[in-house]
């Protein structure tokens, strides 16, 4: 069994992998002040909940965009599981060709997303990751990452709205029943949803206009399940894990 760990700005997501799909997925809040012992105890608890022991873990692969967390988390893996994890980054074989201006600036999570989308669904493909930020990365038919786009995630937009205004309440991020809101809470939910949805659809359309070709659209990330549009072909919540396992297979 392989432990695949996605360390993001908001959550650390841990997939217990037996093949390309996780048997169980666990989430913890990303905090830079956790010690290696705290992370280690969490890992042991997650394994126990899934009826595994540390001896069942054959290897660990980590994708991270939060450098401050890495020292403690890597130390926890070494101390509690007795394994040296594989880190997605420079020097790792990915099977992907990165043709942006500075390939080092492409986040490990986005690289894994693109690898997962290309190996699972083929190319050309536009990969949308809807998390703290919403990102778009285009992968051509040869597996080359040729361009990307970054914008505000819907949750980040909601937090900015409520923190910058005195009387607007926090709301749950969800698909509204109607755009015809009749109270403040529904008005915020509908506004956030349709503003984000419109941006997603317009961005996909602009990619098609400028590329002059058709492509699949694959969405992933915590917010991807709430958006409903015919322009998104596939919603795959485990896309990053598929990419991490593809990368793992090229490095063992």
UniProtKB/TrEMBL annotation:
- The EC number on file is 2.7.1.33
If you read the UniProt record, what top EC class would you report for this enzyme, in one word?
transferase
Residues reported in the UniProt entry to bind ATP: 6-13, 132
According to its UniProt record, which cofactors does this protein need? K(+); NH4(+)
Question: What Pfam families is this protein classified in?
Answer: Pan_kinase (PF03309)
Under which pathway is this protein filed? Cofactor biosynthesis; coenzyme A biosynthesis; CoA from (R)-pantothenate: step 1/5
The main location class comes to: cytoplasm
Q: Which SUPFAM superfamilies match?
A: Actin-like ATPase domain
User: Catalytic positions?
Assistant: 109
Q: Does the keyword Transferase apply?
A: yes
- Which reaction(s) does the protein catalyse, per the Swiss-Prot or TrEMBL entry? (R)-pantothenate + ATP = (R)-4'-phosphopantothenate + ADP + H(+)
User: Which InterPro entries does this UniProt record tie to the protein?
Assistant: ATPase_NBD (IPR043129), Type_III_PanK (IPR004619)
Which positions does UniProt annotate for K(+) binding? Answer: 129
What GO biological process terms does the UniProt entry carry, in alphabetical order?
A: coenzyme A biosynthetic process
Query: Which positions make up the signal peptide?
Result: none
| Cellular location(s) | Cytoplasm
The GO terms this record gives for MF are: ATP binding; metal ion binding; pantothenate kinase activity
Which keywords belong to this entry? ATP-binding, Coenzyme A biosynthesis, Cytoplasm, Kinase, Metal-binding, Nucleotide-binding, Potassium, Transferase
Q: How is the cofactor bound?
A: A monovalent cation. Ammonium or potassium.
- What does the subunit comment say? Homodimer.
Give the family per the record.
Answer: Belongs to the type III pantothenate kinase family.
NCBIfam families annotated for this entry?
baf (TIGR00671), PRK13318.1-4 (NF009846), PRK13321.1 (NF009855)
* Protein name (Swiss-Prot/TrEMBL): Type III pantothenate kinase
Q: Which organism is it from?
A: Bifidobacterium canis
Q: Which gene encodes it?
A: coaX
């Amino acid at each position: 069994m392989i432990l695949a760990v996605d360390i993001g700005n908001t959550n650390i997501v841990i997939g217990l992998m037996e093949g390309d799909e996780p048997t169980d997925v666990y989430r913890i809040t990303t905090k830079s002040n956790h010690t290696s012992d705290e992370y280690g105890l969490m890992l042991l608890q997650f394994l126990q909940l899934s009826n595994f022991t540390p001896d069942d873990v054959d290897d660990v692969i980590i994708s991270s965009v939060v450098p401050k967390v890495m020292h403690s988390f890597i130390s926890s893996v070494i101390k509690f599981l007795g394994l040296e994890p594989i880190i997605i980054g420079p020097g790792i074989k990915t099977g992907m060709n990165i043709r942006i201006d500075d390939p080092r600036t492409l986040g490990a999570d986005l690289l894994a997303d693109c690898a997962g989308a290309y190996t699972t669904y083929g190319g050309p493909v536009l990969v949308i990751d809807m998390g703290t930020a919403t990102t778009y990365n285009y992968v051509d038919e040869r597996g080359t990452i040729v361009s990307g786009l970054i914008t505000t995630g819907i949750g980040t937009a909601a937090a900015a709205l409520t923190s910058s205004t005195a009387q607007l309440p926090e709301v749950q991020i969800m698909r509204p029943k109607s755009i015809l809101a009749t109270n403040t809470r529904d008005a915020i939910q509908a506004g956030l949803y349709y503003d984000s949805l419109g941006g997603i659809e317009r961005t996909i359309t602009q990619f098609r206009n400028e590329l002059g070709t058709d492509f699949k659209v694959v969405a992933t990330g915590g917010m991807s399940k709430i958006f409903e549009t015919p322009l998104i072909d596939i919603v795959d919540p485990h896309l990053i894990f598929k990419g991490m396992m593809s990368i793992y297979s090229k490095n063992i």
